[in-house]
Write a structure and sequence with these properties.
The chain has a domain of 36 residues. With 61 residues, it is mainly β. It is built from one helix and three strands, in the order αβββ. The protein starts with 7 loop residues before the first helix and ends with a strand. A hairpin with a 4-residue loop joins β1 and β2. A three-stranded antiparallel beta sheet has the order 1-2-3, with no helix packed on it. The structure holds zinc ion. The site of zinc ion has 8 residues, from loops.
């Protein structure tokens, strides 16, 4: 097996990456995530196709 190990968190982030709201590409990476201080997590996404950057707020679990 030559598959590099990926932590559960990274895999979750990869699997949950949304499509780009600008161009619809799924070539999207979560570049950052941080707590917003209100019990939620702010995720920052970058689209590699069009360069669009946006954030999504999700409940921390
Ligand atoms: Zn895009």
């Amino acid at each position: 097996m030559a598959i590099k190990e990926v932590s559960g968190d990274e895999l979750d982030a990869y699997l949950m990456a949304p499509d780009c709201p600008q161009c619809g590409s799924d070539d999207v990476t979560m570049t950052d995530s941080y707590p917003d201080g209100l019990g939620n997590i702010v995720r920052v996404y970058l689209c590699h196709k069009c360069g669009h950057v946006w954030t999504e707020t999700v409940p921390a679990h």
